[in-house]
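Need a sequence for this fold. Nothing fancy.
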């Protein structure tokens, strides 16, 4: 018989052996010899962490207590591996394409990289895993105790605690060394995987050896064994159909949702094809593990005294038969089961805790400081992982201590599973249903967590431990429909079935309703499409590896966004700066930052960051996806540009319409004013003509009077005629119907004629002229030009208010043309009226002065306009000053002749 101390030595030796195996595997992987490390066999063996100490020892106990029900724990994963491996394939593909590091990362990434969802999943996983880790510590210490007691060594509570602590410390050291050695881009841990593969072999060999011993060594062959089983009470157990279905579902779902299973299935998967082999090899492994459970249980019940713990039959049967070596092998099997589970679970949970809780909090504490992915951050993450490893193991140990390592732990395995599978709806929905949203996922997860806590987890501490007896019986605050084991009044169900049923139903319901009622954010939709259509979007091989991300890929993307000319210019410039020929520069961090800034100008900072991040930091999106996104962005840009152009055009049209409308309104006002002006102007002479002709008709007057009145009538009639002539003239000019009659003549002759016609013979106005300058020959409509001169001279005569009115007519050269100035010595025209006087009917002098109807200057302007010259008011003179610019052609003729 082996001494207890020898057992401790063997255990320590085994641990050293595992360290060595892991160390060698890491070394070989580091040297690039990782082929055999990533074989399908190793992959399948690593999946065996599904079989923990709870299965190794507990399955036999389970069978001894409840008959064949333990089979469900193997059936669930078998069905998933065989029947639903396409779910696994999808998970593995997504894990690869999106560089998923944990199940929390999967859920968070799917729903728009949501920090909150990552936290929720992490919290659920930690809560669910803690009792399970405690269970492993318990099984190791229990197995120590079995040996100690068989030796007569005293083994009390303090020893349990101490050995539990040492095991926890050893596991922490191993996990920190091999599980958080570095921040591998794909989070693969060769050393750990090899160590757990070795442990998988050890535990299978141990269980099979004990089984073989029991069948052939104790029972006396398979035939005897079957007889034995037939007579045993195990087969008499009534099996509950509801529990069977629930447990098969639960264990199948747990294979997908347990963080440690996700770690080995998805994260550590090196090649998708390994799944094909694992899909039959892993069920085979499970079959081998379960093959001898019933024989060991039956023999144990037979052999050992009533009341011995069936959970330890695997150890106690060989011991009681005096097979020390077999017992030690069995111990190592149990030890392997416990440690491999704890190591992987701790790595998975530590990754989740550090990535989804510690780092986000650390980043938010950093505040506005720009946190780049520098060595600094890597350091923080590694530290966070190591602290998380210690924290998680400490939680497990504390739970183990507080629960006292009693039998309560035995039941906790399934409850733990139920907690973990709350992630299932969000996970499955996320990878198959594009409409699933983060809001729905959060609603489902929180609902499931709450119901699981209330119906299973809290009650598992025992009645009155956390939930009181009265709450169990009558519900909290007397609300009977909230009784932890009879929610909504559904009574009489097995508590586990009840908990699974309600938590999964309400979880799924909340997830679906939440998803239907909410609208996903853009990133969430993009991720949703990536996940659901993972097979269209990604190749089996990684779409991008960091090294393969060359400048060329970046250029393709940049061209899509910036346009090819600009992108090529940018790249060529950078290449030149780096001293490289061609247009493809080295992809340096500086350049990436620069590119990102440039791209941000086109697609927005967030998109640019995400796109570059995905290209550089390994891809979660394939090239096609990126190009699709870029195309989409370009289309949106183009579309919005077009929209903008259109709206600008519409604005211009609207402005033009408004202007036209304003003009029409103004014209209509002008027309009204014009009509009322006309009627007024016509009325005045008409009134005097009518009244004086009335007087004449009465005939009661002398000849002198008669002559005077007839003269007035004549004058008024003449005025009326002139007015009508002017109006007619103006209208003809304005409508452009005027016919010009070109003639050639001397400017001086025109002015002579004008002075005469303006009635200068009375000598009221003195006129001074520049006869030399007037020697210009003009070819234009001379009559019309004279009309303008007459008007200007007549105005000076009429309106010049100087004591000795004087008008200077001078000829000037104005650029390449000639201009005739008419400047009098009156008081001139106020600046605000200088433009107005050219309008129809505008008169600024007081009405007492004998003036016209205010049409003269308007006609002048129209005439000059027709002739190709212009008449303006020149403001810088003392008196009124008008300048007539002669038409261009006439001036040219004049130039030739002078
Ligand atoms: P009208 O046909 O009534 O003379 P015009 O169009 O020729 O009208 O002139 C418009 C107004 O400009 C006149 O009513 C007058 O007040 C002002 N005006 C024109 N010429 C002179 C001038 N040489 N000195 C002062 N005011 C003038």
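Here you go.
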């Amino acid at each position: 018989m082996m001494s207890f101390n020898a057992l401790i030595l063997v255990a320590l030796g085994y641990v050293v052996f595992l360290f060595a195996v892991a160390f060698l595997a890491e070394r070989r992987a580091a040297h690039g010899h990782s082929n055999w490390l990533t074989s399908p066999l190793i992959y399948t063996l690593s999946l065996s962490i599904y079989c923990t100490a709870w299965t190794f020892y507990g399955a036999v106990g389970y069978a001894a207590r409840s008959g064949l029900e333990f089979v469900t724990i193997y059936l669930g994963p078998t069905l998933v591996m065989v029947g639903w491996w396409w779910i696994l394939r999808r998970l593995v593909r997504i894990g690869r394409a999106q560089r998923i590091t944990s199940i929390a990362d999967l859920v968070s990434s799917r729903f728009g990289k949501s920090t909150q969802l990552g936290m929720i999943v992490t919290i659920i996983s930690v809560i669910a895993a803690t009792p399970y880790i405690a269970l492993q510590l318990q099984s190791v210490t229990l197995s120590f105790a079995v040996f100690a007691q068989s030796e007569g060594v005293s083994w009390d509570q303090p020893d349990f605690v101490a050995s539990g602590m040492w095991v926890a410390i050893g596991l922490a050291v191993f996990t920190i060394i091999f599980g958080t050695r570095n921040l591998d881009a794909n989070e693969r841990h060769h050393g750990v995987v090899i160590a757990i593969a070795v442990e998988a072999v050890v535990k299978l060999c141990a269980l099979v050896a004990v089984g073989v011993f029991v069948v052939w060594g104790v029972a006396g062959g398979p035939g005897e064994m079957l007889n034995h089983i037939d007579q045993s009470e195990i087969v008499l157990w009534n099996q509950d159909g509801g529990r069977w279905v629930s447990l098969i579902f639960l264990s199948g779902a747990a294979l997908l949702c347990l963080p440690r299973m996700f770690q080995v299935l998805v994260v550590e998967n090196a090649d998708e094809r390994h799944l094909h082999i694992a899909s039959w090899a892993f069920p085979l492994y499970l079959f081998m593990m379960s093959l001898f459970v019933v024989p060991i249980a039956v023999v144990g019940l037979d052999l050992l005294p009533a009341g011995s713990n069936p959970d330890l039959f695997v150890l106690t049967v060989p011991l009681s038969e005096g097979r020390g070596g077999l017992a030690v092998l069995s111990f190592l099997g149990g030890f392997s089961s416990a440690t491999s589970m704890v190591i992987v679970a701790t790595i998975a949970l530590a990754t989740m805790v550090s990535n989804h809780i510690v780092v986000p909090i650390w980043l938010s504490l950093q505040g506005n400081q720009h946190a780049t992915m520098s060595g600094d951050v890597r350091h923080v993450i590694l530290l966070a992982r190591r602290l998380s490893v210690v924290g998680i193991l400490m939680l497990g140990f504390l739970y183990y201590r507080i629960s006292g390592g009693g039998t309560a732990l035995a039941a906790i395995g399934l409850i733990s599973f139920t907690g973990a599978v709350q992630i299932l709806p969000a996970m499955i929905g996320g990878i198959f249903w594009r409409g699933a949203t983060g809001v729905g996922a959060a609603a489902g997860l929180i609902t499931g967590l709450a119901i699981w806590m209330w119906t299973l987890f809290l009650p598992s501490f025992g009645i009155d431990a956390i939930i009181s007896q009265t709450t169990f019986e009558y519900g909290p605050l007397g609300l009977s429909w909230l009784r932890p084991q009879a929610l909504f009044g559904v009574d009489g169900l097995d508590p586990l079935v009840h908990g699974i049923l309600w938590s999964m139903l309400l979880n799924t319901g909340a997830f679906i309703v939440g998803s239907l009622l909410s609208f996903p954010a853009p990133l969430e939709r993009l991720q949703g499409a990536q996940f659901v259509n993972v097979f269209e979007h990604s190749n089996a091989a990684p779409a991008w590896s960091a090294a393969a991300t060359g400048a060329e890929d970046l250029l393709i993307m940049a061209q899509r966004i910036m346009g090819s000319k600009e992108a090529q210019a940018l790249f060529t410039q950078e290449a030149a700066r780096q001293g490289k020929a061609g247009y493809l520069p080295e992809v340096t961090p500086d350049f990436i930052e620069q590119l990102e800034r440039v791209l941000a100008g086109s697609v927005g900072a967030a998109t640019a960051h995400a796109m570059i991040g995905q290209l550089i930091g390994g891809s979660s999106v394939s090239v096609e996806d990126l190009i699709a996104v870029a195309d989409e962005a370009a289309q949106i840009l183009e579309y919005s540009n077009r929209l903008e152009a259109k709206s600008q055009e519409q604005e211009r049209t609207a402005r033009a319409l408004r202007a036209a409308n304003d003009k029409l309104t103004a014209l209509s006002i002008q027309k009204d004013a014009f009509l009322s002006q006309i009627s007024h102007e016509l009325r005045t002479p008409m009134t005097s003509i009518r009244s004086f002709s009335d007087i004449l008709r009465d005939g009661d007057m002398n000849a002198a009077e008669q002559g005077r009145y007839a003269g007035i009538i004549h004058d008024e009639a003449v005025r009326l005629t002139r007015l009508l002539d002017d109006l007619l003239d103006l209208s003809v000019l304005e409508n452009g119907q005027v016919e010009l009659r070109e003639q050639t003549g001397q400017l001086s002759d025109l002015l002579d004629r004008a002075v005469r016609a303006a009635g200068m013979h009375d000598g009221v106005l003195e006129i001074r002229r520049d006869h030399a300058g007037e020697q210009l020959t003009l070819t234009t409509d001379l009559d019309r030009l004279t009309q303008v001169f007459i008007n200007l001279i007549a105005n000076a005569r009429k309106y010049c208010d100087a004591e000795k009115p004087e008008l200077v007519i001078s000829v000037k050269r104005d650029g390449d043309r000639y201009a005739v100035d008419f400047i009098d010595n009156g008081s001139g025209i106020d600046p605000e009226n200088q433009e107005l006087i050219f309008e129809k009917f505008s008169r600024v002098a007081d009405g007492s002065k004998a003036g016209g109807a205010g049409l003269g200057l308007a006609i002048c302007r129209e005439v000059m306009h027709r002739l190709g010259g212009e008449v303006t008011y020149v403001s810088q003179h003392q008196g009124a000053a008008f300048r007539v610019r002669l038409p261009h052609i006439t001036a040219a003729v004049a130039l030739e002749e002078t």
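For context: Residues 53 and 334 are 5 Å apart (CA to CA).
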